[in-house]
Design a protein that fits this description.
Chain lengths: 651, 334, 335
Amino acid sequence: MLALAALSALFIAGCGNDPNLEPLHKTRADGSPWEVRYAAMPDDPRSLDPQFAYDQMSHRLLEMVMDTLLEYHPFKTDPYEVMPALLEAMPQRSKNADGTETYTCKLKRGIPFQDDPCFPGGKGRECTVRDIEYAWKRMADPKVECPALSALQDYIAGLGEAYDAAKKAGKFDYSKPLEGFEIVDDQTFRIHLLKAYPQIVYWMAMQFTSPVPPEAVAYYDGHEHPDGPHGKMVQRPEFKWHPVGTGAYHMVEYKPASRVRMVRNPNYHTVVFPSDGYPPERADFLRQFAGMPVPLVDEVQITIFRETTPIPILFKQGYLDGMGVGKDAYDRTVTTTHELTPEFKARGVRLEKDLDVSTFFISLNMQDPVLGTNKKLRQALSCAYDGQSYVDIFWNGVAPVAQQLMPPGIFGYDKNYKNPYGYDLEKGKKLLAEAGYPNGIDSKTGRQLELTMDSSATGSEERQMTEFVQKGFQQLGIRVNVVEDNFAQLLAKEDNGNFQILDGTGWGADYPDPENFYMLFNSRNFPPEGKNACRYKNPEFDKVFDQMATMDNTPERLELVNKLRGMLAEDCPQIFNFHKAFYTVVQPWARRTSTNMLLEGAMKYQQVDPVMRARLQKEWNRTPAWPPYVLAFLVAGAVGYAVWFNRHRNV
Amino acid sequence: MFSYIIRRLLYAIPILFGVMLITFLLFFIVQPPEFRARAILGEKARPKQVQDWLHDHGYDKPTYINGRLGVAIDKRATPGKPFYDSLFVNQMKRLATFDFGLSDKTGLPIAQTFLDGVGPSLCLTLPAFVVGFFMAVALSLYQVFVRYSALDRFGIFLCVACMSLPPMIYMFVGQSFLALQLPYFPAYGFDLHGWSTVKFLLLPVSLMVIMNLGYDVRLYRTIFLEEITQDYVRTALAKGVPQSRLLFVHVLKNGMISLITLVVAHLPLLIMGSLLMENFFGIPGLGNALFHAIQLGDAAMVNAFVYLGAILYIVGLILTDICYAFADPRIRLS
Amino acid sequence: MPIWLQNTLVIASFALTAWLLRRGARNERWQRAWKIMKTDLPGMVAGVIIAAYLLVGGADLLKLSPTRSVLDFLMVDVVRLHDEPTKASYSAPFADGTFSITKPEPLKFPGRHILGTTQIGKDTFVQALKGSSTALLLGGLTSAIYLPLGILLGIGSGYFRRWVDDVVQYIYSTIMAIPTILFLIAFIMVFGKGVGTMAWALALTTWIGLCRLLRGETLRLTERQYVLAARALGQSHWKIISSHLLPNVMHLVLISFVLGFSDVVLTEAILSYLGVGTPIGTASWGQMIDGARGELSREPLVWWNLTASGVALFGLVLSLNIFADALRRGFDPKR
């Protein structure tokens, strides 16, 4: 046993502990060093089909491979702003007399697809309006199951009808034109909307609307074809595991549960590094890249970490360029005053705070006979939830406590607003008494009030979080029983309304608009069709919401948004937890350019200094020389003792 | 010999049927397919979509038989179809033909996940098994050599102590000290290309060897001890064969036979990889896939794993029987 | 479950175990074994340690109110080891302040946490003690299910043979064919987490070992002269089983009971790590070990949670194993 350990220790001393793969090349064609970034990802993508993928991991990879029509400006985050990417300019909006609207879009010329075997000669052809039309038709194809369809079919003409027709026929007819998508010429197309929907520009910044070459979908069918040398049968991947787009990178390797490797697309020239909108604190740093062709980095290696424990270890050893500072990594990287530890400071590591565009909440069932009818009880529960302590314990005090449904960065967010039913235990107890449960005892029956809380609890940390919330509610004197569900069970309960309190869900912005958040309480959005998990029904709210939804960002709209906020706070169908935020630490050689949270990494704008990394990695991974000797000594000792012992026994 | 093997194979059929029955009970009766449809289709599923999904997977068929079962008629029965067109029969057929279908969560073919995972899993478990086996044999032989001495008793105590620690502790401590405090090994990751594979595997393999050693050494020691009390050993001793020769030639040879028959049952199960190690060290094998399936509540995947595990176990049993038959010719004839 | 019922059940099961042991002690063979065991120092030490665990676990299972057990009372009101209020976070053993989250706050009970506190301010030492109650509960429930099952089917199949034997053999070889851990996972996944489900799952895998052991032993015993004689005298099956067979296999049951207990404790830890273990709010060692997953790569190191739960679990499992060895030697001195 010891011998094995000693041998392997000796062996490994020469082998190194770098878990990353060798880069594809040492230098570029012009002799300058080949630049690689090493990133981490917590899980596998669910699909890389741009019209189907809706999860964060897929988004992260697709963003590198697919260009979108519009794109979030990497630096303008307050408020968020979109800029043209594949389009030459922002779409032209025109209102028609009958209430419908038309957006005219013009595509950039000469943008080629990535080189891929699905094209003749393996050379990527130019992307045209037809490819965009094809992608939009795919959204309506029942086989694709596009999650954006349910939202878009109310607005884009003919989308819903195309879906229904295909459903009836059993097959989508791609030769038929899509009513809402009019091709004007090779470069121009018009989108016809049934009613005003200014949020459409945000959808054009998502991969759902990205162009897809029909050749790629036909080519990557998941069957065997004679592609190999000498006509050998080789299985092609399915399209959803082999995306082809116009993006800055193409995916050369994807091993599920292990890693992804992306390499630069040499023909990429859709956008260049923006020269405006820099946040003042990093303007000096960003200016040097202005106007440069992107991507700046040649290769991106992404390791999939299903287990989070090793991430801080690898970061410390310099094998990851950056990481989000989770609970486990916090104390080793950040000091009590929200600064980096001296050790990391000396290394030149940077600490940055990222604020996600999301809100987490605890849903209360408005159809529950106990909770739904008793506003005071809901308010009391809201008062018993100690948001600040929760955030301090589980989010290291980084995430802001949510005072309202919308997170910062969205129109109508007011950072000075305070929830009237924020944490105040005394007030909560008073409200509970008014609700008919003084000290948690039902004044009618004399029994303790018992509530059931459903919670997602797969990890140990989630379990502790749930325990915290439970402990908080029970301070009111009531009893809260916890039912642990996995996420699927939780969603099922959300759908069928079979819960009292439901903890552990949140809402991340699809796009930065108040409509995307307040629709969660629209009574038309009851589950399973919609996401109004609380089953909140308030005609007044619906009326204001409908009015607000399609407005431009004017002071009148602000007033309506505030009105909605007030109604929710008073009715308390939901207890707002926090807006997700976290620290990110970044190695000195990989200072981040863009930190826009609506982009998943903005990888094409990121940069790296490979020379510095090579030097520092070596410096940080010096192994002491003595342990192998100590081990060898121990082994020799044990063997010696055994031999000695035998001598004495046999004598 | 051939007919003997055939006979053993036939014995396996009812057991395999029993396993299918258990998985059907668990994953289709206790947890009906509607539940899984929800898990797959996720937050945005409409009732219609759930129905479609059930239909596409053939899960909307009547549960046991199509038609009258005693007095109750299954409400999903369709008159036109034969009576055996039911969920139960179809499920049996699929398992028997190794058609595992798609994962509930990722939508990937489960068979593909299995094929992808076998390589990395074997990379981990096979070396750990081989090294562990030889180390355990060596240590247990030494213990038998010094049997009933204080050293032997201390050895047994160490073995029991080794067994009494949950495997996670080895992993946590191993990673913390050998990959973080003393950065000899990569803390995480895997790659299936020549030397770098070895680099990634050294730490998990060593940890796995150590965590299984206690149990194995204790077990092997009892086996060798049993061998040493046999008559032929006493005779040899009386004849003046030296202790060491006796041990390393006679006892080892005869003990090995029973050892190998014991160990051979575990061989097929090596394919399943290690549930704990693979996830912790990022080896994309079968154990990792299973771990992930558990975390996500992926019933189809767990179902397939249960069935696969049973098949591998039965293969192990048959291998054991064959080994016995080779070691003892009398069995072949009975 | 109402408190009085739970308390009654706990006391009743302790009493039942004690009565069974006393009953067994009338057996001549048990008396001989006890004589041998008395000279076995490690075994006796292990026995004392197990008794201590049982006492602590039992004290935590006896409730004074729905949220307070006798152990809580002893710890909080007698020894004065309080949990920190919700706000607190990790604190090191004997520390005066929390372990550097946003700012180190003074503890409400400085210097009182001999093994520090957990993430949400619970006293680690108390939690580790409370872990024994979960172990006891789980082990007790599991044994309560699998012992009767194993004894009944094992002796039944060995005694009646023929079709009874065939059916029992078929059932256990089918369950055995599924690797244990997979069976446990599938079972708990489908039936949902909970101590009850877990006990059933563990029982359904554990009875097999006992059943096979008893079957073999019964097969051997029924060939003995005195059983054959009893049969020839026309004694009823029940009489033969209860007065001739059962007393002669009970020592095997005792040994596998002790070993089964240690298996249950270890398996609980593994299942908790996999996320299909005990539910929230149960202070189990498995939960603690799982929670300590990332604590070892912290800096400074948070070692006390893993150490406390690890040592507590290790202590019990090791003692059980050593005690089982001692029992085995006692009953079978030749080996």
